[in-house]
């Protein structure tokens, strides 16, 4: 299966700071998604971004499919951004929909 | 639109007991997934349905886990008998079809004593 490496594993920021989270895939993927898992365990969709760049408020994401990586940018971070950020993708060589997840980046934003 | 509904939210059982989880996907979503998330890890797929048929159960421990989606809408996942290593969050997700964005429910947190 696909191996997904996320970096950094942990990130501690002061409110207002910017950050970049990275996701590398061992093989070509489709259907790349970024999720935020909040402290209550809910997994919230942030982006569906197989390729290119998307922006949603203070968040943006870029996927370079040919180089098998994706980046999530968080600007002007807030305490509510705390939680675990996951990226995931499906195997381009498969017709199935299994999402392969990384181990996540634990983000803590303090006031 | 209503999201993916799961119940119960929490469950505590003793090892060797049985437990069942329920999931109602987003209306119109043909594909339904059950994932297991162990503490400190990302979710891992257990089983995937397309309508009421199984398309991927290669990672499902079939000696103790079973799942069904009889009418192609809601689904149940059962564990019998439970082991200590089954302590995890069980997440249900749905998508309009395979290779479309997946949307997750709030999960069921299972603790085995």
Keywords:
heterodimer, A: 111 residues, mainly beta, six-stranded mixed β-sheet, five-stranded antiparallel β-sheet, 0% helix, B: 113 residues, seven-stranded mixed β-sheet, four-stranded antiparallel β-sheet, 11 strands
Task: Explain what this protein looks like in three dimensions.
The complex is a heterodimer of chains A (111) and B (113). With 111 residues, chain A is mostly beta strands. In chain A, 0% of the residues lie in helices and 59% in strands. In chain A, the strands form 2 sheets. In chain A, strands 2, 4, 5, 9, 10 and 11 form a 6-stranded mixed sheet that branches. With 113 residues, chain B is mostly beta strands. In chain B, the strands form 2 sheets. In chain B, strands 2, 4, 5, 6, 9, 10 and 11 form a 7-stranded mixed sheet that branches. In chain B, strands 1-3-8-7 form a 4-stranded antiparallel sheet, with no helix packed on it. Classes of the chains: A mainly beta (111), B mainly beta (113). At the A-B interface, strand 4, strand 5 and strand 9 of A face strand 4, strand 5, strand 9 and strand 10 of B.
Structural class of chain B: mainly beta
Low-confidence stretches of chain B: none
Instruction: Please state roughly what percent of the residues of chain B sit in beta strands, choosing from under 5%, 5-15%, 15-25%, 25-35%, 35-45% or over 45%.
Output: over 45%
Average pLDDT of chain A, to the nearest integer? 95
Radius of gyration of chain B: 13 Å
The helical percent of chain A reads under 10%
Average pLDDT of chain B: 95
Number of strands of chain B: 11
- Into which percent range does the helicity of residues of chain B fall? under 10%
* Alpha plus pi helix count of chain B: 0
The largest interface is:
A-B, 23 and 26 residues
End-to-end distance of chain B, in Å? Answer: 37 Å
